[in-house]
UniProtKB/TrEMBL annotation, chain A:
Gene Ontology CC: plasma membrane
UniProt name for this protein: Iron dicitrate ABC transporter ATP-binding protein
UniProt-annotated location(s): Cell membrane
Taxonomy of the source species: Bacteria, Bacillati, Bacillota, Bacilli, Bacillales
Membrane topology: Peripheral membrane protein
Amino acid sequence: MTTHTFETKNIQSGYDNKTILNDVNLSIPSNQISIIIGANGCGKSTLLKTMARLIKPTGGDVLLDGKSIHKMAPKQLAKVLGLLPQSPIVPEGITVADLVGRGRFPHQSVMKGWSKKDYEAVAEALEMMNITEFADRNIDELSGGQRQRVWIAMALAQQTDILFLDEPTTYLDITYQVEILDLLTDLNKKYGTTIVMVLHDINLSARYADYLFTVKNGQLIAEGAPTEIITADLIKETFQLDCQVINDPVSNTPLIVPIGRHHA
Amino acid sequence: MNETLNTIIKARRKRRNRYVSVTIILAIITIGLCCTMMMLGNTIYPVTDVIHVLLGETIPGASFAINEIRLPRTVAGLFAGFAFGAGGYIFQTMLRNPLANPNVIGITTGSSAAAVFCIIVLHTSSTVVSLAAVIGGLVTVGIIYGLSRGTSFAIGRLILIGIGIQAMLNAVISYLMLIGKTNDLSNALRWLSGSLNGAELEMTYPLIIAVVIVTPVLIYFAKQLEMLELGEQAATSLGVNTNKTRVILMISAVLIIALATATTGPIAFVAFLAGPIAQRLVGVGFSNILPAGLIGVILVLGGDLIGQFAFETRFPVGVITGIIGAPYLIYLLIRINRKGDI
């Protein structure tokens, strides 16, 4: 199990001239599952993208083991840090095994063919995501949940110590949401992979996260273990939502029950 | 684990074999077409004569026809076809859209406009015309890319701006054709339809050099190109420097396409058809630059042979490829229209 330090130092980031993140300092706990939550448009996705070098910060820096990720060679960085974007594009007609195989890119040199290690990494990723039976199938034939498992398998084949995921459960029904989060937890337990993701569902976040980051208006307003930080006040502040927080009987984590206008 | 491993290795090997055998077959067809181009004409010469002439022997009649007419024609078709095919494939793959090819987004129109301007207004030598065609193509791409950059890179925008620029350039060409003198027009017209007629060996050297230099670059970046297909974000997180890759691939592809256009004129639809045909034959999962280039050659040489010998009148190759390509463009537009994305 490899440990890394991963921090943001006073990052400012956004699109064009619009600053979305303002002076965010955080440190991602190594070998744990961190989840970023916040209301729509609060900057959580921008934060994730800035940390995963998809957006270059206009100020401050993102440091991996003390070194700026923007000063590292892209392929070297890609061996340590992976990201599953929210909506990656499926090349038309590609098979599952081929797509997963593309995760091996940072480990391959240009002229060399596939090594034994490449094949093994792909096989392992397919097995871990339970998609071996689809290996030769065309991705277009798969369901949404199966497809998402393929994309995660691609990120697994990359064999990075740190994995970012941008809303990996969006558009999936609840069964698949739980399945994906279980698989990511397996990954974290088995290899000690540091996982950082943006999720919409607060209750699933509280259940699966070792560590939560709460973002509002481009700033970090709370962080810590879910049991320590989730309170009705925090949810009110973050989401402008009145709720009660009770104990999740299954996982012993906080469970929020929204109130709304018609019930009290 | 072992079973999974075997499945993956077997599937990959199967596709590798398919890629290799298709490429070899395409190469054989290409060689066959080259030989046919050298043998056929007003007089048919046997292969032995062709080989003797190419090796430097003098055979009365055959030497002139082969060295001065058929060899330049074949060489121009060979390299221009490859350039159109490979360059078109790069654009289509990089921009993830079969419509995104040099014909549709106006690069070849830029070359043509510059060339026609030189022929009709400046009355320059053919070397200058070629040079102007290359510069015209590169400048057009620069403008299209610059205008479509905006805040972030959007493919739909690039295609639409390309189509707009193309319309403007076509207007320029039409205007030039209207004011042109009669004896310049036939020259300009030959240029606009794309033809191997009157090819001269010296004129093909820049194209040959560019193809020889650029092809290894394209093959070197083939894997990055595969990653780019997954989208900007996925490619970045896999360690691809997306901007650098795109600029290098685009300049390389434009360079060979513009030089090919400068040599033969814009041979319609070759850059558009070669990629999808190669994809059909080889399948997805590997970079199809080489097969696409070979298909380009086959389309150009095959089209030229048909144009020369199949009908009473001789047609330039661009007319033949146009007849093949136009229905496919319409089919593609209908299909894209149904899917609702550009």
